[in-house]
Amino acid sequence: MEKKQLLIDYCEYDSLAEMPACDRELMECAMDATRSSYSPYSRFRVGAAVRLADGTLVQGSNQENLAYPSGLCGERVALFTASAQHPGQAVVALAVVGSQEGDFLEASPCGACRQVMVEYEMRYGNEIDVFCYLKGGRVRRIHGVKSLLPFTFEAEL
Ligand code: THU
After folding, report:
1. pLDDT (tens digit, 9 = 90+) per residue, 19-73?
2. Neighbouring residues of 120: CB distance < 8 A, sequence distance ≥ 6
3. How far away, in angstroms, is 63 Cα from ligand 1 center?
4. pTM above the 0.85 mark?
5. Can you list the pairs that 64-73 forms with residues at least 24 positions away whose Cβ atoms lie under 8 Å?
6. Residue 154 Cα to chain centre, angstroms
7. What is the DSSP letter of 119?
8. Distance, CA 64 to ligand 1 centroid (Å)?
9. Would you say 64 and 43 are in contact if contact means Cβ atoms under 8 Å apart?
């Protein structure tokens, strides 16, 4: 038996102002996307945005349904919209933010969204930068979804 350990590299910005312009724009795009959230059941809005290899930004927001499992997270709405509308374009970055009653809140992708993000990395052979809005306007940046989802499911089908 061998004991092993995982180390996860990430960084945090104190504010959006500290971020490189293109990443700040991506987070602002995710913040803007919270406006289109359809979340009458949870009353928790999630805004997401992805940046594609050619620089295009695509928004997504959580879309709920009375039959609860039929809804979809903001991150997957952004990713699937990007894939459907811009086929062949790699996703290079994703930003996510929560919102309630007009205040922006911390949000981090759920497990299912992480699994979907990993597949985008595998499809296009690049690591995705993930930006999560944190309390007090801080932003966490994680380079590569494998850091968010180690021991990923992989199979040759
Ligand atoms: N939600 C997201 O949009 N993204 C996540 O990563 C986790 C949760 C949504 C689902 C539901 O509409 C609301 O947040 C409350 O769970």
Report:
1. 999 999 999 999 999 999 999 999 999 999 999 999 999 999 999 999 999 999 9
2. 79, 83, 90, 91, 128
3. 9
4. yes
5. 64/38, 64/39, 64/40, 66/41, 68/41, 71/41, 73/46, 73/48, 73/109, 73/110, 73/112, 73/113
6. 21
7. H
8. 9
9. no
Pull the structure tokens for residue 44.
Answer: 């928790």
- Atom 8 of ligand 1 has which residue's CA nearest to it? 73
Instruction: Quote the CA–CA distance of 112 and 110 in Å, as a whole number.
Output: 6
**37 within 8 A of 45, measured Cβ to Cβ:** yes
Q: Pick from 38, 46, 106 the residue to mutate for probing ligand 1's pocket: most ligand atoms within 8 Å of its CB.
A: 46
Q: Which tokens belong to 128? A: 């995705």
Q: Going by DSSP bridges, is the β-strand pair 129-133/91-100 parallel, antiparallel, or unpaired?
A: parallel
